[in-house]
Amino acid sequence: MFDFTLHDDVHNTALVNAQAAAWASRINLFDLEAVIFFFGGTSASCRLTPPVVCDPAPPPSVTPMICDPPPMPSSTPPPEAVPTITVAPGQHFTGQVVQTASNPQRAGAAIKGTLVDQYGQPLGGLSVTVERDGWQARAVSDGAGAFSFELPEAGTYTLAIEGDEADALTLKLEQYDEVTVEWVESWEGSLVPLPLAEVRTVEIVRENGLAFAADTPWPGARYGWSVSGGTLVEKGERVVWQPPAEAGRYLLQVVADWGRTGLAVDAAILVVERDGSVTVG
Predict the structure, then answer these.
(1) How far apart are the first and last CA of the chain?
(2) Fewer beta carbons under 10 A from the terminal one: N or C of the chain?
(3) CB of 218 within 8 A of CB of 199?
(4) Does pTM top 0.90 for this prediction?
(5) pLDDT tens digit string along 241-251?
(6) Structural domains of the chain ordered from first start
(7) Whole-angstrom Cα distance, residue 257 to residue 70?
């Protein structure tokens, strides 16, 4: 404890206390046992044993704390949360191993991969699971469509997207393996969502006689022809219709399919008259 005994015949006691405390704070309080202060005829004695307590206590400091230099705000924004999505009806994913590497620095094995939609854009928020003999782990693809797993040991693992377990991958991993997988979205038949920014068209063109061809400005289409009566015979890039004996109206249809990027349909009415002549409506 730090006690002052003051003898003052001339000066104000409070002032002497303040001066003595201020002076004592400049010396090593832990190396002295006692000290005598003289302030113009006034003496002050104190005992110095840590912790040091001033009596009376000094007033609280009003000086604000200032950091020099001031701390800089973080320039790295927190990562945005990726909303979790579920696999839609008719939506599937085809997975394939695109790279296998060996890293002796790791224990066990690892799987990493990406998920992209039918246009090659990343898909975030999908749940991916990996399991083996009762052990299971789960990850959610991030905004870049990426996911990863650290596996405890080598072995045969099943990798799947939740909601599309029918298209799971079976991976046989050796010790130290690092496998990279890519999952690509696909859709069943007419459930394929077409891009709204582009509408594609196809047109049935009549050539000589009852020969028909499909015309479109977009290359690379696969054509599917059908007719409600009679027979269609394919001849190269065209079809020839063999009408039925019965008079009537028949529908000729062509579907142009560009796979992931588009679909278009056109139709024509074929009329068989009673005399066997044919007109195209």
Answers:
(1) 113
(2) C
(3) no
(4) no
(5) 999 989 999 99
(6) 2-48 (no CATH), 91-189 (2.60.40.10), 203-280 (2.60.40)
(7) 63
